[in-house]
Amino acid sequence: xxxxxxxxxxxxxxxxxxxxxxxxxxxxxxxxxxxxxxxxxxxxxxxxxxxxxxxxxxxxxxxxxxxxxxxxxxxxxxxxxxxxxxxxxxxxxxxxxxxxxxxxxxxxxxxxxxxxxxxxxxxxxxxxxxxxxxxxxxxxxxxxxxxxxxxxxxxxxxxxxxxxxxxxxxxxxxxxxxxxxxxxxxxxxxxxxxxxxxxxxxxxxxxxxxxxxxxxxxxxxxxxxxxxxxxxxxxxxxxxxxxxxxxxxxxxxxxxxxxxxxxxxxxxxxxxxxxxxxxxxx
Length: 282
Ligand SMILES: [Zn+2]
What we know:
By secondary structure, the protein is an alpha/beta fold. It has 10 helices and 8 strands. Strand 1 (5-10), helix 1 (19-28) and strand 2 (31-37) form a beta-alpha-beta unit. Helix 1 (19-28) runs parallel beside helix 2 (50-71) and helix 5 (134-154) crosses helix 6. The longest helix is centred in the first third of the chain and has 22 residues, at 50-71.
């Protein structure tokens, strides 16, 4: 199987290979579209503070738009990872004030970037996948709800980071999405366990799973609304984690060769589903 493919969710940093190298290698391997999602401030050499977060968004926007202009096939998503919210709230003497500033100033900036076309969607928002202090849990839920409202108004895609609690995560996401009035077709549950993918898909959400052969092999023939992602972190301390974006097609092909995934399914996760979700036209 040879053809173009999409990496539905990846990262590039200012301390690893960098935006230019990541996108150049991806495009050289036949990648058609890579969706670059903002990282935490440390990945841009910035402090984990309110100011650092604001500056990390500007750094991401500038680096991402540069590679988009230069190479094409790039989408830029801005957001606030639940772990970053957690760090900010822990470090703050006043979690309520920190949350309020994130909600008004930071999310306000994301709204204007969407309006100006400098970001193409939101991500990632959601709940931590690790135990943390109650304030952080609540603040992350409120920020997720706000992000879903912004996505609704801008008709933008939004990537959700979740704790992967299966049916309970799905049920709560349903409540959030209904409350925000955003279309489920705009919401992608990223880094979902392959065994949970069909739960979200059956309810009309999109979902992305890591593009390693063993993970996609677990999908079998259930590929509706499923995309694949590298979730590449571009972290020099963890080289190659989670996987390289340019290895996606090879890994998916291996799952097909091993009889774990149908070739129809491979076609859908690599090309058809992301084309619908991201609106790629031939
Ligand atoms: Zn990610």
